[in-house]
Amino acid sequence: MQLTARKAQPWVSILLIGLLLVHPFVTARIGAFLFVLASLGALSLSITRRDRILRIYFFMASALLLWSVFWNVQEGAHRIFVYLLCTATYFLFIIIVINDLLRSTEVTKNEIFALINCYLIAGTVFSFIYELSYFLDPASLSFQTGSIGNHSVFLYFSFSTITTLGYGDIVPVAPFLRHVAVLEAIFGQFYIAIVVAFILSRYIQHRSAPPQA
């Protein structure tokens, strides 16, 4: 059974790209709030009405989000809670979308947008891991600038890693984060070389196939 709504992926792309553009200009707390909204919005747009389990998860995550907004605790505890919720939701999104992509018998432009969404979300998930690790151990990452603004710094490092650019201005110091960075770089290469190549080849075959009488 297909779990994702086929025509929703372009809207999810707009949502995610818009968030990445706006995020550097807001505070850390508002940025965390926007990321949770984006994760819930992506899941809400993507899942079909027939899947009750994912619908239940969506409503539970929404309730937890509203609770976290009015949760009067320290900023650190609130940030950990929100980012864990984001990570779980985004990871679930990646699983269901890739599962549908590999099992789909027909590849259209919606599947191409789904590929883009999974790549953007994967980079976002790793950025949460980097920031949580930095929050728990500030010595786990080394910054040339010496100052941290908001989550956009970790987004920058994550997407530099997943694309294997590696400018060198942010360096993982802790052994755990070094392994995470290696895994992200491997994922980025394998995703392009295997998943994207596989789906694009099927898309080209679908476009070049003669119409059925």
TrEMBL record:
<feature type="transmembrane region" description="Helical">
    <location>
        <begin position="12"/>
        <end position="42"/>
    </location>
</feature>
<dbReference type="InterPro" id="IPR013099">
    <property type="entry name" value="K_chnl_dom"/>
</dbReference>
<feature type="transmembrane region" description="Helical">
    <location>
        <begin position="114"/>
        <end position="136"/>
    </location>
</feature>
<feature type="transmembrane region" description="Helical">
    <location>
        <begin position="148"/>
        <end position="168"/>
    </location>
</feature>
<keyword id="KW-0812">Transmembrane</keyword>
<dbReference type="Pfam" id="PF07885">
    <property type="entry name" value="Ion_trans_2"/>
</dbReference>
<feature type="transmembrane region" description="Helical">
    <location>
        <begin position="180"/>
        <end position="204"/>
    </location>
</feature>
<keyword id="KW-1133">Transmembrane helix</keyword>
<feature type="transmembrane region" description="Helical">
    <location>
        <begin position="54"/>
        <end position="74"/>
    </location>
</feature>
<protein>
    <recommendedName>
        <fullName>Potassium channel domain-containing protein</fullName>
    </recommendedName>
</protein>
<keyword id="KW-0472">Membrane</keyword>
<feature type="domain" description="Potassium channel">
    <location>
        <begin position="118"/>
        <end position="202"/>
    </location>
</feature>
<feature type="transmembrane region" description="Helical">
    <location>
        <begin position="80"/>
        <end position="102"/>
    </location>
</feature>
